[in-house]
Write a structure and sequence with these properties.
Length: 157
Protein backbone atom coordinates (compact mmCIF):
# COMPACT_ATOMS: atom_id res chain seq x y z
CA UNK A 1 0.00 0.00 0.00
CA UNK A 2 2.74 2.42 0.92
CA UNK A 3 4.38 2.01 -2.52
CA UNK A 4 1.13 2.93 -4.24
CA UNK A 5 0.85 6.11 -2.22
CA UNK A 6 4.25 7.27 -3.51
CA UNK A 7 3.40 6.86 -7.18
CA UNK A 8 2.86 10.04 -9.16
CA UNK A 9 -0.11 10.77 -11.44
CA UNK A 10 -1.23 8.04 -13.82
CA UNK A 11 -0.27 8.23 -17.48
CA UNK A 12 -3.81 9.10 -18.49
CA UNK A 13 -3.79 12.24 -16.35
CA UNK A 14 -0.23 13.26 -17.18
CA UNK A 15 -0.14 16.83 -18.55
CA UNK A 16 2.30 15.73 -21.28
CA UNK A 17 -0.38 13.46 -22.78
CA UNK A 18 -3.09 16.10 -23.33
CA UNK A 19 -4.62 16.01 -26.82
CA UNK A 20 -7.50 18.22 -27.95
CA UNK A 21 -9.73 16.58 -30.55
CA UNK A 22 -11.90 18.19 -33.21
CA UNK A 23 -14.04 15.16 -34.04
CA UNK A 24 -15.64 14.14 -37.33
CA UNK A 25 -18.79 16.13 -38.03
CA UNK A 26 -17.59 19.05 -35.87
CA UNK A 27 -17.07 22.40 -37.60
CA UNK A 28 -15.15 25.12 -35.77
CA UNK A 29 -15.30 28.70 -37.03
CA UNK A 30 -12.50 30.70 -35.44
CA UNK A 31 -8.89 30.29 -34.42
CA UNK A 32 -7.67 27.34 -32.32
CA UNK A 33 -4.73 27.73 -29.95
CA UNK A 34 -3.31 25.09 -27.57
CA UNK A 35 -0.13 24.62 -25.59
CA UNK A 36 -0.28 20.89 -26.33
CA UNK A 37 -1.41 18.74 -29.30
CA UNK A 38 -4.57 18.98 -31.39
CA UNK A 39 -6.04 16.21 -33.55
CA UNK A 40 -8.39 17.38 -36.30
CA UNK A 41 -10.89 14.94 -37.81
CA UNK A 42 -13.51 17.63 -38.48
CA UNK A 43 -13.34 21.04 -40.16
CA UNK A 44 -11.71 24.26 -38.91
CA UNK A 45 -12.31 27.64 -40.55
CA UNK A 46 -9.49 29.64 -38.97
CA UNK A 47 -5.88 29.36 -37.93
CA UNK A 48 -4.49 26.53 -35.79
CA UNK A 49 -1.61 27.04 -33.38
CA UNK A 50 -0.32 24.15 -31.26
CA UNK A 51 2.91 24.36 -29.30
CA UNK A 52 3.52 20.58 -29.52
CA UNK A 53 1.81 19.04 -32.55
CA UNK A 54 -1.05 19.14 -35.06
CA UNK A 55 -2.45 15.90 -36.45
CA UNK A 56 -4.97 16.11 -39.28
CA UNK A 57 -6.77 12.86 -40.09
CA UNK A 58 -7.96 11.81 -43.57
CA UNK A 59 -11.33 13.51 -43.09
CA UNK A 60 -9.87 16.59 -41.40
CA UNK A 61 -9.82 19.98 -43.13
CA UNK A 62 -8.30 23.30 -42.17
CA UNK A 63 -9.05 26.50 -44.06
CA UNK A 64 -6.47 28.72 -42.42
CA UNK A 65 -2.85 28.84 -41.36
CA UNK A 66 -1.16 26.23 -39.16
CA UNK A 67 1.82 26.89 -36.87
CA UNK A 68 3.26 24.14 -34.68
CA UNK A 69 6.34 22.22 -33.55
CA UNK A 70 5.48 18.91 -35.32
CA UNK A 71 2.68 17.92 -37.70
CA UNK A 72 1.21 14.90 -39.45
CA UNK A 73 -1.27 15.74 -42.21
CA UNK A 74 -3.47 13.17 -43.95
CA UNK A 75 -6.36 15.54 -44.74
CA UNK A 76 -6.70 18.89 -46.51
CA UNK A 77 -5.21 22.29 -45.69
CA UNK A 78 -5.84 25.55 -47.49
CA UNK A 79 -3.38 28.04 -46.03
CA UNK A 80 0.22 28.25 -44.90
CA UNK A 81 1.81 25.49 -42.82
CA UNK A 82 4.75 26.43 -40.59
CA UNK A 83 6.37 23.55 -38.71
CA UNK A 84 9.38 24.24 -36.50
CA UNK A 85 10.59 20.64 -36.51
CA UNK A 86 9.12 17.66 -38.43
CA UNK A 87 6.28 17.66 -40.97
CA UNK A 88 4.84 14.41 -42.33
CA UNK A 89 2.53 14.69 -45.33
CA UNK A 90 0.73 11.40 -45.84
CA UNK A 91 -0.44 9.94 -49.16
CA UNK A 92 -4.00 11.24 -48.69
CA UNK A 93 -3.04 14.86 -47.96
CA UNK A 94 -3.94 17.82 -50.16
CA UNK A 95 -2.20 21.10 -49.33
CA UNK A 96 -2.96 24.42 -51.05
CA UNK A 97 -0.51 26.97 -49.70
CA UNK A 98 2.99 27.69 -48.55
CA UNK A 99 4.86 25.10 -46.46
CA UNK A 100 7.85 25.80 -44.25
CA UNK A 101 9.42 23.05 -42.15
CA UNK A 102 12.79 22.05 -40.74
CA UNK A 103 12.26 18.45 -41.92
CA UNK A 104 9.70 17.04 -44.36
CA UNK A 105 8.42 13.61 -45.32
CA UNK A 106 6.01 13.51 -48.28
CA UNK A 107 4.46 10.13 -48.97
CA UNK A 108 3.71 9.00 -52.52
CA UNK A 109 0.26 10.24 -53.54
CA UNK A 110 0.34 13.38 -51.41
CA UNK A 111 -0.56 16.59 -53.26
CA UNK A 112 0.99 20.00 -52.59
CA UNK A 113 0.00 23.06 -54.58
CA UNK A 114 2.24 25.91 -53.45
CA UNK A 115 5.73 26.68 -52.24
CA UNK A 116 7.78 24.33 -50.07
CA UNK A 117 10.74 25.50 -47.99
CA UNK A 118 12.53 22.79 -46.02
CA UNK A 119 15.65 23.06 -43.91
CA UNK A 120 17.16 25.08 -41.15
CA UNK A 121 16.11 28.71 -41.22
CA UNK A 122 19.71 29.84 -40.84
CA UNK A 123 20.89 27.78 -43.86
CA UNK A 124 19.31 30.31 -46.22
CA UNK A 125 19.27 27.80 -49.06
CA UNK A 126 16.39 26.83 -51.32
CA UNK A 127 16.65 24.44 -54.26
CA UNK A 128 14.38 24.52 -57.25
CA UNK A 129 14.37 21.00 -58.74
CA UNK A 130 14.38 22.52 -62.23
CA UNK A 131 17.31 24.85 -61.56
CA UNK A 132 20.91 24.23 -62.66
CA UNK A 133 23.26 22.44 -60.23
CA UNK A 134 24.62 25.65 -58.67
CA UNK A 135 21.98 25.73 -55.96
CA UNK A 136 22.33 21.99 -55.46
CA UNK A 137 26.05 22.38 -54.72
CA UNK A 138 25.35 25.27 -52.34
CA UNK A 139 22.81 23.15 -50.46
CA UNK A 140 25.23 20.23 -50.29
CA UNK A 141 27.91 22.46 -48.74
CA UNK A 142 25.32 23.66 -46.20
CA UNK A 143 24.66 20.03 -45.26
CA UNK A 144 21.13 20.21 -46.59
CA UNK A 145 21.34 18.26 -49.87
CA UNK A 146 18.09 16.47 -50.48
CA UNK A 147 16.43 18.24 -47.56
CA UNK A 148 15.92 21.76 -48.89
CA UNK A 149 13.32 22.35 -51.55
CA UNK A 150 11.59 25.35 -53.03
CA UNK A 151 8.79 24.51 -55.44
CA UNK A 152 6.37 26.80 -57.19
CA UNK A 153 3.24 25.17 -58.52
CA UNK A 154 1.97 21.64 -57.99
CA UNK A 155 3.91 18.76 -56.55
CA UNK A 156 2.44 15.30 -56.65
CA UNK A 157 4.53 12.44 -55.42
Amino acid sequence: MEAMARKGPTQASSPEKVISIIGPGLRVVGDCDTTDTVRIEGHIEGSVRAHKAVVIGKGGRVNGDIHTQDAVIAGAVKGSVVVESRLELQATCHIDGEISAARLQLDEGGVVNGTINVGRKDAGVAIDPGAPGGDQAKAHRAGQAGKVLGVGGKVKV
